[in-house]
Write a structure and sequence with these properties.
The complex is a heterodimer.
Chain A: E1 5-6, E2 9-14, E3 23-27, E4 34-35, H1 40-53, E5 76-77, E6 80-81, H2 94-99, E7 104-108, E8 117-119, E9 122-123, H3 126-133, H4 155-165, H5 172-176, H6 183-194, H7 203-216, H8 227-231, H9 239-255
Parallel strand pairs in A: 2-7
Antiparallel strand pairs in A: 1-4, 2-3, 5-6, 5-7, 8-9
Helix pairs in contact in A: 3-7, 4-6, 6-7, 6-9, 7-9
Chain B: H1 3-9, H2 11-36, H3 43-54, H4 65-95, H5 110-113, H6 115-134, H7 147-156, H8 161-188, H9 196-223, H10 227-240
Helix pairs in contact in B: 1-2, 2-4, 2-8, 2-9, 6-8, 7-9, 8-9, 9-10
Classes of the chains: A alpha+beta, B mainly alpha.
The complex binds protoporphyrin IX containing FE and FE2/S2 (inorganic) cluster.
Chain lengths: 261, 243
């Protein structure tokens, strides 16, 4: 074995379909001689090639950009969303495991009622889409691109809005939360619109609608523990949740709070 | 559905109820402790204080009226807090029907993961506490109105086991407050990155003061120690751990 390869033992959740009950399968043979320079997904690609050679069903996992911007690639790796580095699974490299002396790796899909497993490690994150549909937009016609600085925005707000907008919807916050809560995701979306002038008109309705939807699709509540923010590849902070809470309280007072705003 | 009912239907509405009732309970815990400190001034002062609670609000209110109003508000807040905690924990377990085989905490502290269990411990303690010092049925030698004697004897009886129960309960309560007091600000959105350090510090301070303050009472009853001595103890224990 050359010095930059590693022999792994993988425990992978395999589940044929949403109806199958699923279970863990251990791979040793297929996970030998993995280069430490590979990304986590490349490691899984290698394992899959060996499975295909043996005429076995490859492990299904989600991915797209493989550069940390699309948010498709979430996996629960040794009990931590996106694994031991605070980044996306596609940007996680095997050397991190080598440095920490980890050879035993358990890989599970995100677990939440609102994220049902489609196959193996692939989950359906459509619930996030539904939260966005409920109000994560601005209903104004934008016309052609406006002149720069025609709408002044304080630098601080612009920065904060960008922090919220950097959410890629990967679902790690839900996966890591002991309550399977989607508060960090929802609050990042509400926050980045609510911090900008264009987002003010629908601000009250937005928070009411999006929070209603978030509850309706089956996410849990927040207990201010902070696991979400600690695994967020974009390091979105709990202050977005505080902001959403504040917005919701204000909107409820202003609107007399009807369930259907 | 409109108004309060639909507000409460939301996860965040429930959290706001947790925070407001929790804040009220916390206010009570601090006032209650302050009142009980009269024990260090001696029997006469403590018994006088307890007697005085009955005429709170005099002459506007008749005897015990304010006391009972406060008790009712306290009970309501306590029940609402517990009921909402049950609903939220039900939502949480419904939110993840299939558990992980492996899950590690990255950020959570022990106090934050113990909110429900610690809360239940506090609930059991409150029931015992009422039976012990208010109703007296868990007390071997209870005399209505003799607060000082009831407290001192109540801690000393059964080889000091009641005192130990109180001390353990206060550690649970203090942990609950450590996470809870900070949570009030987060849940109500009354914070911001620039204040979070201060608010964390404030929550820690309240938690430590509630623990040391309340624990000093059973220790005083057992060993006739003054709070100054007890604080000294805590300092040397903290010193052992390098604080
Ligand atoms: C003197 C008694 C108590 C005090 C002073 C107190 C105080 C608090 C405070 C200030 C909070 C924070 C609210 C928030 O999340 O914003 C809280 C949360 C909570 N309390 Fe209590 N509480 C008490 C008793 C109880 C009891 C008896 C239970 C029993 C079930 C309980 C269960 C909880 C739970 C589950 C939470 C939510 C935890 C979280 O969000 O992480 N508490 N409490
Ligand atoms: S594959 Fe796009 S973020 Fe990882």
């Amino acid at each position: 074995m050359s010095h930059d390869t590693m022999d792994l033992t993988l425990h992978v959740w395999r589940q044929k379909s949403s109806k199958d009950s699923g279970g863990f399968v251990t791979y040793v043979e297929e996970a030998r001689g993995i280069s430490e320079h590979m990304s986590f997904l490349e490691m899984l690609d290698v394992v899959n090639e060996k499975l295909i050679e043996k005429n076995e069903d490859p492990i299904a996992f989600d991915h797209d950009c493989r550069e940390g911007i699309c948010g498709m690639c979430g996996l629960m790796i040794n009990g931590i969303a996106h694994g031991p580095d605070q980044t996306t699974t596609c940007q996680l490299h095997m050397r991190v495991f080598k440095e920490q002396g980890i050879t035993d790796i358990t890989i599970e899909p995100w677990r939440a009622k609102a994220f049902p497993v489609i196959k193996d490690l692939v989950v359906d994150r459509n619930a996030f889409e539904m939260i966005i549909q409920a109000g994560g937009y601005i209903s104004v016609s934008t016309g052609s691109a406006p002149d720069a600085n025609s709408l002044p925005i304080p630098k601080e707000n612009a920065d904060k809005a960008m922090d919220g907008a950097s959410c890629i919807g990967c679902g790690a916050c839900v996966a890591a939360c002991p309550n399977a809560s989607a508060m960090l995701f929802t609050s990042a979306k509400i926050g980045h619109l609510g911090l900008l002038p264009q987002g003010q008109v629908e601000r009250d309705d937005r928070v009411l609608r999006m929070v209603n939807k978030m509850d309706e699709v089956g996410f849990g509540g927040c207990t201010n523990i902070g696991e979400c923010s600690a695994v967020c590849p974009k390091e979105i902070g709990l202050e977005f949740i505080a902001r959403m809470n504040r917005d919701l309280i204000r909107a409820s007072l202003a609107k007399g709070d009807s369930k259907k705003p | 559905m409109t108004g309060i009912a639909s507000f409460y239907q939301r996860s965040i509405g429930k959290k706001v109820v947790m925070a407001l009732t929790g804040a009220f309970l916390l206010f009570y815990v601090v006032v209650h402790m302050w009142g009980n400190f009269k024990i260090f001034l001696g029997q006469e002062q403590l018994d006088h204080y307890a007697e005085g609670l009955k005429t709170l609000g005099d002459p506007l209110f008749a005897e015990e009226q304010v006391l009972w109003l406060f008790r009712i508000a306290l009970l309501a807040a306590f029940l609402l807090h517990i009921y909402t905690a049950m609903q939220l924990s039900h939502m949480a377990s419904r939110g993840r029907p299939v558990a992980y085989k492996q899950r590690k905490d990255v950020q959570a502290n022990f106090a934050s993961r113990m909110m429900l269990l610690g809360g239940i411990a506090v609930l059991l303690f409150v029931i015992y506490h009422l039976m012990h010092f208010t109703i007296g049925v868990a007390h071997s030698d209870f005399v209505y109105g003799e607060v000082f004697n009831n407290v001192v004897r109540g801690f000393q009886e059964f080889m000091g086991i009641p005192a130990i129960i109180y001390i353990i309960a206060m550690i649970f309560l203090s942990m609950h407050i450590y996470h809870g007091a900070w949570s009030i600000f987060q849940t109500l959105g009354l914070n911001g990155p620039q204040y979070n350090g201060v608010l964390r510090g404030l929550a820690t301070l309240i938690a430590v003061v509630v623990a040391i303050g309340n624990i000093s009472i059973p220790l005083y009853a057992l060993f006739a120690l003054s709070p100054v001595e007890v604080t000294g103890w805590f300092q040397s224990i903290a010193g052992l751990f390098g604080f």
